[in-house]
């Protein structure tokens, strides 16, 4: 008996972990629709059967609606919103302009949920909706402070995802908030603990192990549950 090919929508796949996830799922035999906001040389150089590249800005409602229309015939076993920003996060909260705080909160905590609402009905039964969170988003683990606007935006994402789960209590898909670990990307820096391939493989393992579940969980790339 043959099984249908699984299909992932990776939102924010131009570089870093998003691009690593695209490569990982393609290697595992998935069909992948990957999005970028602008030019993405790393994504564009992939010449792999089963890959479709689309453009979307998750901060733009019209852009999200246009993507939804272009993908009207598609159903996904995974929708993973990876897109996020890191802006002046090394500064204490009072040193960051209000406009920057607003942008970080919008992109990291609000736009992923709005995207999820737009695509929730495109998830196949037993599929997974995933958001790229961070261990920094854990309120319980915040004992040292630092990375204040980014940390707060990921904590807000976690809270908004829990509210999303409550609004969609009758859903037939699972919801994951995922911490990729400290990864050597443009965002994570060269001194990080993990390379992209290791993090992406771990995240894919967690996602594949969660297929068929309909609960909500906050886990890291090793599958360990993190405190909210």
Automatic annotation (TrEMBL):
SUPFAM superfamilies registered for this protein in UniProt: NAD(P)-binding Rossmann-fold domains (SSF51735)
Matches recorded under InterPro entries: NAD(P)-bd_dom_sf, SDR_enzymes, SDR_fam
Gene Ontology molecular function terms on file: oxidoreductase activity, acting on the CH-OH group of donors, NAD or NADP as acceptor
Highest taxon of the source?
Bacteria
What's the protein called, per UniProt? Short-chain dehydrogenase/reductase SDR
Q: Source species, please?
A: Methylorubrum populi (strain ATCC BAA-705 / NCIMB 13946 / BJ001) (Methylobacterium populi)
Q: What is the lineage of its organism?
A: Bacteria, Pseudomonadati, Pseudomonadota, Alphaproteobacteria, Hyphomicrobiales
């Amino acid at each position: 008996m043959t099984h249908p090919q699984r299909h992932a929508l990776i939102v924010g796949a131009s570089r870093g972990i998003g691009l690593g996830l695209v490569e990982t799922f393609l290697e595992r035999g998935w069909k992948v629709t990957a999005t970028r906001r602008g030019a993405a040389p790393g994504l564009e150089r992939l010449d792999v059967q089963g890959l479709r590249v689309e453009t979307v800005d998750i901060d733009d409602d019209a852009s999200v609606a246009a993507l939804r229309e272009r993908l009207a015939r598609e159903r996904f076993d995974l929708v993973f919103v990876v897109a996020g920003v890191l802006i002046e996060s090394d500064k204490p909260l009072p040193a960051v302009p209000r406009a920057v705080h607003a942008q970080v909160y919008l992109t990291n905590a609000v736009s992923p949920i709005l995207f999820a609402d737009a695509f929730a009905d495109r998830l196949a039964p037993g599929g997974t909706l995933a958001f790229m969170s961070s261990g920094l988003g854990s309120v319980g683990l915040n004992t040292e402070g630092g990375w204040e606007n980014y940390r707060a935006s990921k904590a807000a994402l976690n809270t908004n995802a829990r509210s999303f789960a409550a609004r969609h209590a009758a859903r037939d898909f699972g919801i994951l908030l995922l911490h990729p670990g400290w990864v050597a990307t443009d965002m994570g820096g060269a001194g990080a603990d993990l390379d992209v391939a290791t993090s992406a493989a771990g995240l894919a393992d967690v996602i594949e192990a969660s297929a068929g579940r309909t609960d909500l969980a906050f886990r890291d790339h090793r599958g360990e549950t993190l405190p909210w």
